[in-house]
Amino acid sequence: MPRIVLASRNKGKLKELKMLLSDLRWEVCSLLDYSGVPEVEEDGVTFIENAIKKATTVARYLNEWTVADDSGLEVDALKGAPGVRSARFAGVQGDDQANNEKLLQMLTAVAWEKRTARFRSALAFASPEGEVWTTEGWCEGVISFEPRGEGGFGYDPLFYLPELELTMAELSDEEKNKISHRAMAMKNFRAYLKDASGA
Asked: Residues 143-195: pLDDT tens digits?
């Protein structure tokens, strides 16, 4: 069985990625299964740049096929911010509560119709030899005035889906994995992996 490494230690992201890959003929591992893998500085100006850097660095270090996801939130009223700085928007990497509080504070005076936003995901799949394949996905929504829901992670409690009248954090895992930015990016990626594995 071929093996693929998910270049992340983010448990929320890993849970989603593993669910999206669960029916394919690949053994799925993550950085939580390895010790000593160096941190990769995410200094790219786009999600694709960061995903490629993470995937190629880890693939080369572990000598394993690797997939990396770089994703985040783009808010139109903030000219696309927080963007590639989504996970460290408030200054500390991965502090979801602080990031959400800062976002709400910056949008205090912004009317509902101008709070449009999207989640964007970029996936990079790299071989140990440096070959790279990429794809992207996104999901449109609106930033709510207050958090709702207990599911998901990151900005999910604030990301409102008008067609469902729910935030991303109010969806079940199964519902989220049908419409999320990561699920959209995964559609093409799953087809590629299926071909690569001969499944």
From this structure: 999 999 999 899 999 999 999 999 999 999 999 989 999 999 988 888 777 77
Decide the pairing of beta strands 159-161 and 116-126. unpaired
Q: How far apart are CA 35 and CA 125, in angstroms?
A: 21
The H or E element that residue 116 is part of is strand 116-126
197 pLDDT above the threshold of 70: no
Asked if 16 contacts 6 with a C-beta cutoff of 8 angstroms, the reply is no
Q: Could you give the CA distance from residue 99 to residue 186 in angstroms, rounded to a whole number? A: 26
Catalytic residue, from 69, 70, 96, 156: name it.
Answer: 70
Closest CA to 172 of 143, 148, 151, 194: 151
- Provide the b/e sequence for 102-124 (b: ≥16 CB within 10 Å): ebeebbeebeeeebbbbbbbbbb
Q: Are 181 and 71 in contact (CB under 8 A)?
A: yes
- pTM beyond 0.90: the answer is no
23 catalytic residue (yes or no): no
Asked whether the beta carbons of 134 and 48 are under 8 A apart, the reply is yes
Cα gap 173→171, rounded to integer Å: 6
